[in-house]
Design a protein that fits this description.
The protein is an alpha/beta fold. It has one domain: Cytosolic phospholipase A2 catalytic domain, CATH 3.40.1090. Helix content is 34%, strand content 14%. It contains 7 helices and 8 strands. Helix 1 runs parallel beside helix 7. It comes from Pseudobacter ginsenosidimutans. Keywords: Hydrolase, Lipid degradation, Lipid metabolism.
Length: 259
């Protein structure tokens, strides 16, 4: 008797990065063109939002079109409160237009990483309400208020885990990790206060990401992504094209990894 070989289970883990996560779309477009279709996903912060849209059936091109036509961080949602600069209800409005509000209605398994502030640990959402999980993982401190789910308090998942491979590593045959926060190896000195803080922040996050990248079968890390802002989409086309070109080059030069 002949047995058909089961299709390989492909996992995809997406880092956070604010609107740099547009780079994920470029990478996913390249994967798509190489016939690589993830069957299980995990993500943190903006990467989790991208993963949720993909799990709901939206293609990379669909997602890019949505980003171009929607306003992110609108001034009308600015608020003078200590809990966060922006009212996150504009995100809920976008989610409700394109996503179901339950993990069970997605087309594939999704794990969303969030930082539980009181215990100081990473927790993973994978069932139940989807919107709350996406708000929790993307609640960047000072930008959005923390998400309360008494007695727990959640903030951006990238603070403790910006490449959440743990929940899916053993559930897939091939794991692809994508990181969109790489920093330039050299920089002009001296730096201003904001750029100094930004560089320190991403050096700290990147150290943990690169330590975990060796557990990925394929790790895609477009260089110097911090040249792009986290909260502005004016360079959306450039980010998409830059990440797409890097991923295409990597996939074409490392085909063995995908077999």
């Amino acid at each position: 008797m002949l047995f058909k070989r089961s299709p390989r289970k492909i996992g995809l883990t997406l880092s956070g990065g604010g609107l740099r996560a547009i780079g994920h779309l470029g990478v996913m477009k390249a994967l798509e063109q190489h016939g690589i279709k993830p069957t299980i996903l995990s993500g943190t912060s903006a990467g989790a939002i991208v993963a949720a849209f993909y799990a709901a059936g939206h293609s990379p091109d669909d997602m890019f079109s949505i980003i171009l036509k929607k306003e992110f961080f609108p001034r009308s949602y600015l608020r003078l409160r200590t809990s966060g600069l922006f009212d996150p209800s504009f995100l809920i409005k976008i989610f409700s237009e394109y996503l179901p509000d339950d993990f069970s209605k997605l087309n594939m398994p999704l794990y969303v990483a969030a930082t539980e502030l009181s215990a100081g640990v990473t927790e993973y959402f994978y069932e139940g309400p989807l919107y709350k999980a996406l708000l929790a993982t993307s609640s960047i401190p000072l930008v959005f208020p923390a998400v309360m789910d008494r007695p727990k308090l959640y903030v951006d998942g990238g603070i403790l885990n910006n490449l959440p491979i743990e929940p899916i590593r053993e559930k897939c045959d091939l794991l692809i990790g994508v990181h969109v926060n790489s920093i330039a190896k050299g920089c002009d000195m001296p730096l201003g206060v904001r750029k100094t803080f930004d560089r320190i922040f991403h050096l700290a996050l990147g150290n943990a990401v690169y330590a975990k990248s060796r557990h990925c079968d394929l790790f895609i890390d477009p260089p110097a992504m911090t040249q792009f802002g986290m909260l502005e989409k004016k360079e959306a086309h450039k980010i998409f094209g830059y990440a797409y070109a890097h991923a295409m080059q990597q996939l074409e030069s490392n085909p063995v990894k995908l077999k």
